[in-house]
Amino acid sequence: MVENNVNCETVWREISNYVDGEVDAGLRVSMEEHFKSCKRCASVLAGMQNVVKLYGDERMLEVPAGFGGRLQKRLAKDVGETGKRWLTWSAWLVPVAAILLITGGVVLTNSLTFRNYIQSRHAQPGNDVPPDMVVVVSDGSKLFHVAGCPFIHDKNSERTMTAREATRDGYTPCPRCLRQYLKTGLVREHDDVAEEEGEEEVFAGAAGR
Amino acid sequence: MPETDMVLNNPARAGGTREQELIARVQRGENELFYELVRPYERRVYAAALAILRNEHDAEDVAQEAMLKALGNIRQFRAEARFSTWLIQITVNEALMRRRRERTVVMEGIDGQRAGGHRSGEEESEYAPRDFADWREIPSEALERKEVRQRLAEALGTLDRKYREVFVMRDVEHLNIQETAEALGISVASVKTRLLRARLMLRDLLAAGWEQGWFSRLPFEKGTKPW
C-alpha cells in the first residue's frame, strides 16, 4: 500500500475503466502514480492488459472445421429457395390471373350484353316488393306478376315463387299488375303509350271482374 | 479523382468501400453476394453465439440462422451502424431467443471457487484480485499453439454466464460498452461491473494456468514467472 490520493481498492474498482480509457483525466493521473509505486496494483494492471490482448486476438476466434462451407451452402440454399418460392408463386400466378381475367371478362360481357335481353323494355327494379309475396313467372318473359294478371306470357309455363326468389332469378315486377312497386310508377314511353293505355284498360277490366 | 482510382490508391478505404458496395448490391437483390459480405465476420458471429449457448452445434445453427435473418432484413440496415455490430446484435438476439425457447441447460462456471469467492448473485460486491506476483507480458505468439487457445477458451468457459457474455461482447467481439448493453439488454452500469469482474477473474485464472504450465514452453527467462 502506498501513500497516494487513491488506494488499492479504488484502483481495483476502476482498473477496467482505466484499461478502456474511460476514467477522467484526474483519476487517470492518480492511478498512474499509484501503479508506479504499488507492485500489487501494477501486477493487476499488467494481468488485465494481458487478458484483454490475448482474448481480443483474432486467433482466439475458432470455428468448427467446415463451418464456412456449411454456412455458404445454407445461404445458397435459402437464396435458391427464395427464387423457387417466387417461381412457384409465379407459376401459379399466371394461370390463376388468366382464369380470373377470362371469367371477369365473360361476366362483364354477359352483364352488359345479355342482362335484360328477354326483359320488357319497361322492366325496372322493384321498390319495396314484399319478399315473401307469392308471384307468378313464366317462360319468355322476365317479369313477375300477381296471380291472374292478363299480361302473363306463355301461360302454360306459369309457376309460382316468392318475390325474393323471382328477384334473385332476375325477374322484375310487371309494370301493369305491380306498378305500385315500381320506382317511377306507370311506365309510359313514346310509341308504346297507346298500346299501354289499351293494356291498362284491359287490365282494369280484368281486375274489376 | 474518380472513385475507382481512390479505392485503388487507398487500400484502407477500399475495404470499407467494398463492404458498402456489397451491402448496397445485396440490398438491391443480389443475394448471391451476401456470403462474400459476411465472410469476414463469420468467426465473430460463431463466437458470439457460442458465448451464449455453450454448445458448438447450437452455436453453429444459430450463427446460420442469424446470417439468414440478416439477409432477410438487409434492407433495414442503415449505414450509421457498423455492419459487423449489426450482425453481432442479430446473432445475440437469436442466441438469447434460442436459449429462452429451448431452456438450454448451460453449464455454469465456478465463479466463486476458482476466481474470487463470489456467487453469481453477488454482482455488486467487490472482487479482490488474488495473485500479485510480478506480471510479464505474454507474447501473442503464444496463441499460435492450439493448446494455449484451448486453455484460454476453457478458462473463459468457467466464468458465470453473465460475466462470460459481457466479456465476449466487449473484449472478443469488440463491441463498445453501449453496444454491449444494448445487445444483451442490460444497463451500461451492469456491463461495466460485470466486465471488471470477468477481467479480474480471467486474470486470476491465467495466473493459475501459468502455475499449471499452460505457457511453460514460452520463451520466458528461466525461473521467472510472467506475473
Walk me through this protein's architecture.
The complex is a heterodimer of chains A (209) and B (227). Chain A contains 6 helices and 4 strands; from the N terminus they run ααααβββαβα. With 209 residues, chain A is mainly alpha-helical. Chain A folds into 3 domains: 8-60; 73-115; 134-208, no CATH class. Chain A has a two-stranded antiparallel ribbon. A two-stranded parallel ribbon of chain A has the order 2-4. Chain A is rod-shaped. The N and C termini of chain A lie far apart (131 Å). Residues 114-118 and 185-209 of chain A have low confidence and may be disordered. By secondary structure, chain B is an all-alpha fold. Chain B is built from 11 helices and no strands. Chain B has helices at 3-9, 11-27, 34-38, 42-53, 56-72, 83-102, 111-115, 146-157, 161-172, 177-184, 188-211. The radius of gyration of chain B is 20 Å and the shape is globular. At the A-B interface, helix 1, helix 3 and helix 4 of A face helix 4, helix 5, helix 8, helix 9 and helix 11 of B.
CA-based gyration radius of chain B: 20 Å
Greatest chain-chain contact: A-B, 44 and 54 residues
pLDDT under 50 segments of chain B (min length 5)?
Answer: 1-14, 106-122, 219-227
Q: Output mean pLDDT of chain B.
A: 79
Major sheet description of chain B: none
**How large is the radius of gyration of chain A?**
47 Å
Helical coverage of chain A, percent range: 40-55%
Please identify which CATH superfamily of the largest domain in chain B we are dealing with.
Winged helix-like DNA-binding domain superfamily/Winged helix DNA-binding domain
**Which class of secondary structure composition applies to the elements of chain A?**
mainly alpha
* CATH first level of the largest domain in chain B: Mainly Alpha
How is the secondary structure organized here?
The complex is a heterodimer of chains A (209) and B (227).
Chain A: H1 8-19, H2 25-37, H3 39-55, H4 67-113, E1 134-137, E2 143-144, E3 159-162, H5 163-168, E4 172-173, H6 193-208
Chain B: H1 3-9, H2 11-27, H3 34-38, H4 42-53, H5 56-72, H6 83-102, H7 111-115, H8 146-157, H9 161-172, H10 177-184, H11 188-211
Helix pairs in contact in B: 1-2, 4-5, 4-6, 4-9, 5-6, 6-10, 8-11, 9-10, 9-11, 10-11
